[in-house]
Amino acid sequence: MKTLFTATAIAALAIAPAAAAKIATGSSVSDMTVVDSNGTSHNLSDFAGKRVVLEWTNDGCPYVKKHYSTDNMQSLQKDATADGDTVWLSVISSAPGKQGYVSGSEANALTTNRGAAPTAVVLDGEGVMGQAFAARTTPHMYIIDESQTLVYQGAIDDNRSANPATVDGAKNYVRAALADMDAGRAVAQSDTQPYGCSVKYK
Q1: Which of 1, 101, 157, 193 has the most CB atoms at less than 10 Å from its CB?
Q2: Is the model's pTM score more than 0.70?
Q3: Residue 63 sits in a domain of what CATH number?
């Protein structure tokens, strides 16, 4: 099954966010325009031939803090993008006035202050991208392969606690999925239950 997000479809999702359905793993997600913290527009189709990791984030969420305070998220970002063949987009879908909402300059300062290494930070205050992907939590992780097929969605790891001490010993689903892809294997666990704070939509 293929799911192409046209401008009309995305607009419809923005109007009726509660009806946004989960994208099936294995679907195409090649057509969606987003704007980053520097005001630059990107379309997912621009990244054809590369892997794309999407990370929904909210700096006020204790589950997000768990992964940033331990350098878990930053090391994963750096390892994933080291070879230049993977794009990492951190997505902020918090609406204005809600926890986690930031301006472009604030997003850039946050990236610097916590030593993060995304390719870009997407500002999605209207919730269009989040609703299109049915992103539910922060963090909520997605991996799109070189053919622009969604091959992983769900949690970052298998320990649902907000305690930073639980990062050690947890199975990192994102790292495991990327390793499967590196080895030319199908992603063994392609769909897991996300955990964290709810995305602070409008």
Answers
A1: 157
A2: yes
A3: 3.40.30.10
Is 160 a member of any domain?
yes
Dig out the tokens for 36 from the structure. 């980053």
Comparing C-alpha atoms, which of 58, 62, 68 is closest to residue 125?
Answer: 58
Q: Is residue 1 part of a domain?
A: no
Burial class (CB in 10 A: 0-12, 13-18, 19+), 162: middle
Structural domains of the chain, count? 1
Strands annotated E in 74-145: 86-92, 120-123, 137-138, 140-144
Instruction: Identify whether the C-beta of residue 124 lies closer than 8 Å to the C-beta of residue 135.
Output: no
Q: Is the peptide bond before 139 cis (omega within 30 degrees of 0)?
A: yes
Both structure tokens of 100: 């986690």
* Domain, as residue range, for 186: 7-198
User: In this predicted model, what pLDDT tens digit does every residue of 73-112 receive, in sequence order?
Assistant: 999 999 999 999 999 999 999 999 999 999 999 999 999 9
> Is 2 within a domain?
no
Tell me how long the chain is.
Answer: 202
3-state secondary structure 13-45: HHHCHHHCCCCCCCCECCCCEEEECCCCEEEHH
Burial code (b: 16+ CB inside 10 Å, e: under 16) for 27-63 equals: bbbbbbebebbeeeebebeebeebbbbbbbbbbebeb
